[in-house]
Amino acid sequence: xxxxxxxxxxxxxxxxxxxxxxxxxxxxxxxxxxxxxxxxxxxxxxxxxxxxxxxxxxxxxxxxxxxxxxxxxxxxxxxxxxxxxxxxxxxxxxxxxxxxxxxxxxxxxxxxxxxxxxxxxxxxxxxxxxxxxxxxxxxxxxxxxxxxxxxxxxxxxxxxxxxxxxxxxxxxxxxxxxxxxxxxxxxxxxxxxxxxxxxxxxxxxxxxxxxxxxxxxxxxxxxxxxxxxxxxxxxxxxxxxxxxxxxxxxxxxxxxxxxxxxxxxxxxxxxxxxxxxxxxxxxxxxxxxxxxxxxxxxxxxxxxxxxxxxxxxxxxxxxxxxxxxxxxxxxxxxxxxxxxxxxxxxxxxxxxxxxxxxxxxxxxxxxxxxxxxxxxxxxxxxxxxxxxxxxxxxxxxxxxxxxxxxxxxxxxxxxxxxxxxxxxxxxxxxxxxxxxxxxxxxxxxxxxxxxxxxxxxxxxxxxxxxxxxxxxxxxxxxxxxxxxxxxxxxxxxxxxxxxxxxxxxxxxxxxxxxxxxxxxxxxxxxxxxxxxxxxxxxxxxxxxxxxxxxxxxxxxxxxxxxxxxxxxxxxxxxxxxxxxxxx
Length: 583
Ligand code: ADP
What we know:
6-stranded mixed sheet; 2 domains; ABC transporter transmembrane region fold
């Protein structure tokens, strides 16, 4: 959809306002930076005047005066250096603080984005925006200020030329227009490429993320070659795009550089004509000549400001898109707070689909009493994990309701739900930290005794103690140094340490060795009757040990009872049981 001019303006204005919100917090630094810049602009503007004067004193042989002018230049130049030092220092503090605030906000907002919206995005979208785009936002105020102070002094200089000599003034204005025209064309070309480049960079970061995270599977699947082909294509493309961007820069620099040289030459020709016809004094020609760089760049600065602004606007739109709710919907919770729940819950006629096209749950209803252990069985894809995700409110039902302790979860706040429910997935995410920190990250004030107790219950303590560094062992990215069974037991221990009332456990389908299975079974068994435990069961032993079994088929509960009851009355269960027996 093509945006109208007004929409574009509103969007840019909103981006500025949002950035101003962050800049406001850094008022002091900005003011110091601003003052240092004004001084810089002023001192910078008088240097060519003094230099020209120096040249004239030299040619006139006024050596004492030359010394005075040179001393003045020295003082001015040293002051320029100091001003530049302070301007840079405070600019850097200013940028650091703005960056920090925006980046922390994005990271925080990311946690609030609805799971369904996260499912659709690649990690590159977030990483690139958090790392690259925020930098460009932070630069805008500095760039704008720098250019505006330059602009003001340069207009002053142009005015001085106008007063000194109208012909040279017209000559400068013409030169400015030529350079401005070239610069505009360059920016236009460059921006089109830049927009495309950022999209490609985002996709490449995402793919590199996949490579890093999936490297073991890629190796085992022997998919290295095909992955490399994709990744090399992306890397080749973005580097080509970057090259094309620098191509535009290089070519236009060649043009503008040559145009500057030609303008210089004709300035001299014009000056010769003016001097020989007594239209101007030599000293004025020299002074005006010394300012030429600044004057020619007057319009270039203006177009640069426009370029920076476009650049800023592009980045700001990408960043604020995450912070705002329109494109990335934020999770909404109720306000009721339950400090400790009993652990009863109920699904009442729940319908849900990940997309509008197809429902995954088709009217699920069941009740679970606190401290019950209930197993869910059914074919893969029947909707069992989805039931778990809905209970933890990772997704919202499209209709129907879920109650915890009789309260609709729509009315409960985040802590009441997620602080009281733990999910142990088939492939739990173990953070790349020490074993101890995997506990402290979910419960900050946990004691060592509590960690050890949880690990003992999860039948993991002995293994941890056999490691040279015990609880201080680093587990590697995704807990790679642990076996599948150990990762699940660590996740169980983490859930136990959280002391949530409801524990949802997705039993690993992968063939764990008997000892590991036994360990996990024992861990679950030790939690029985103390917690409300829901298990997605893949093994008979688990099913038989649970208080009740719910049979899920095609997003519906099609049977409910104990193992014996279901075996007698439920054809779906009987079929599944026979299949399992055959295995
Ligand atoms: P089960 O746990 O019984 O094996 P799931 O609840 O995981 O089944 O999946 C039910 C259906 O929902 C499957 O068809 C699956 O492909 C789909 N599904 C699961 N997770 C997602 C998701 N994040 N996005 C889209 N579809 C999903």
